[in-house]
């Protein structure tokens, strides 16, 4: 599933794409169907079509990373070649160094209902932009 979102990545109009085969096990998961192998395989050609069909997006957001790290890194590199920022929402606490290099934005941490989402100061999740924690940008002052 894809959608254009404006609140997931600050100051970006993002094309968000769900990635199935989620490795996470978050309590209260908002998309439990993504634990399964569902949908069409995402390829560079499909990304090209999606970007062409969604004029005005300036960021491509992978909602999940699936089971194949090399495939998601390849697709991230392709998105970067298109001139878009590239973002990943991962439920993992830590990612490999290659992910920090491949993505402009990384959201890390499993969703924990008792901590709340990114817009709560109590959240355990963090959003990074080129390695800098920008989570506080989601908090109303």
Q: What's the helix-strand series?
A: EEHEHEHEEE
Radius of gyration: 14 Å
Strand content: 15-25%
Tally of DSSP β-strands:
7
Note poorly predicted spans.
none
Biggest pleated sheet = 7 strands, mixed
Name the overall outline: globular
Strand order of the largest sheet: 1-2-3-4-5-6-7
Give the helix level as a range of percent. 10-25%
Span from first to last CA? Answer: 33 Å
Number of helices: 3
**Whole-number mean pLDDT:** 91
* Domain tally: 1
Structural class: alpha/beta
Task: Tell me briefly what this model is.
The protein has helices spanning 44-53, 69-81, 97-102, and strands spanning 2-5, 14-18, 59-63, 85-89, 105-108, 126-129, 132-133. With 141 residues, the protein is an alpha/beta fold.
Give a verbal description of the structure.
The chain has 141 residues and is α/β, with parallel strands linked by helices. The chain has one domain (2-138). Helix content is 21%, strand content 21%. It has three helices and seven strands. It has helices spanning 44-53, 69-81, 97-102; strands spanning 2-5, 14-18, 59-63, 85-89, 105-108, 126-129, 132-133. It is globular and about 40 Å long. The termini are far apart.
Helix-strand blueprint:
Elements: E1 2-5, E2 14-18, H1 44-53, E3 59-63, H2 69-81, E4 85-89, H3 97-102, E5 105-108, E6 126-129, E7 132-133
For this entry, give a set of tags.
141 residues; alpha/beta; 3 helices; globular
């Amino acid at each position: 599933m894809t959608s254009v979102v404006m609140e997931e990545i600050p100051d970006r109009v993002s094309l968000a794409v769900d990635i199935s085969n989620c490795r996470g096990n978050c309590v209260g998961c908002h998309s439990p169907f993504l634990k399964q192998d569902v949908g069409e395989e995402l390829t560079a050609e499909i990304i090209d079509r999606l970007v062409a069909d969604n004029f005005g997006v300036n960021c491509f957001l992978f909602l999940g990373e699936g089971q194949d790290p090399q495939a998601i890194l390849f697709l991230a590199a392709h998105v970067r070649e298109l001139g878009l920022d590239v973002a990943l929402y991962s439920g993992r606490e830590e990612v490999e160094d290659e992910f920090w290099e491949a993505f402009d934005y990384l959201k890390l941490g499993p969703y924990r209902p008792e901590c709340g989402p990114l817009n709560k100061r109590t959240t355990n999740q963090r959003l990074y932009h080129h390695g800098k924690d920008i989570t506080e940008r989601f908090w109303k002052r």
